[in-house]
Input
Amino acid sequence: MIEKAAIFVLPGVILLSAILMLRLGKRGGEAFVRGARSGLSTTVSLIPAMLMLTVGLTMFTASGAVEWLAKSLSSVCGFLGIPSELLPLIVTRPVSGSASTTTFADLIAAHGADSPAGLAASVMMGSSDTLIYVISVYFTGAKGVRGTRHAFPVAAIVMVICVLLSCYLCRVLL
Amino acid sequence: MEKCFFILVSISIIFAISTGNLQAVSNAVVDGAAKAISLVLSLAGAMCLWSGIMEVLREAGAVQKLSRILSPILRRVFPKTWESGQGSEEICAALSANILGIGNAATPLALSAMEKMQAANPNKERATDDMVTFAVLGASSLDLLPTTLIALRRTAGSAAPYKIILPVWICSLVCAVAGVLLSKLCAGISRKVPAKSRKKNVKGIMRKAEQHD
Output
């Protein structure tokens, strides 16, 4: 049911805009071209910051820091009620979208999607995002701003809340 | 941004030396640069498409309608932006795209929201409270239909791929609310502590760290 609804979201939005464009006539086409052009220049302006970030994050993932972090966090996790299978996912989730998707796929393949760890991982995966990437990209839109103030600490705390809550909700609800 | 890069690079190098992964990290430098460009390229199509559609929706007045519906809630979350009116429509559009699960559309919309907010920012070097709140909200997933997640669960042979949807909603909502509240709390604290003394401190530490290198 939900999946069927989801399939219609994207075509629906496109159809809506096509209808609106038709109704606006020439103005609609002009608006689209204007918007698309501004989208292109935004993309180009993203490149330098994206380069810096991706190089940093790729180096970080390759350095083995993730495995070390996961290992050193394992004793804390047992205490907080987090299945230790989740650790690699918890560490990669804020850093990289593609790495965390791979980690997640490996995790549910190894432990089963409906196992306690698999369920907790699914909830966590669905309710968190790659925070380092998102915040950095968002702030490239604000040219001239130096520093992101409390954005990263707050997002990190939210991430911790998300991990704890997803494990708790899985224990209680599922 | 500079700080983030510095921290990532120095941690990676320290780790690489201690674990003997230095070769892998050197390769990662080149791979990362290539990855960045392919990432931007893969984003470019969606960026152009959604920026174009956004402009059409605005021309037709649909964005204004949407923002009128969402205003009662979001006005409290982003008070300064709603006061100035600069960027409020973009915020509504970006958050709607997030909730509908059109992540590709959300990024360009969020970027133009940030641009508008920066245009109305009196102090161009310091991010406004609303900008930080918006970034935190963007970093917490608001996706109502986590389609990729469900597909991954199905591929892994789950008997009930949708089972997780209710906890995901609860968790997302709690995280979003917590993010907004925490961001507002921090903004309140930072207003009380004079900004100058903190800045000097951080710069001093960074300088020392660079000298050590």
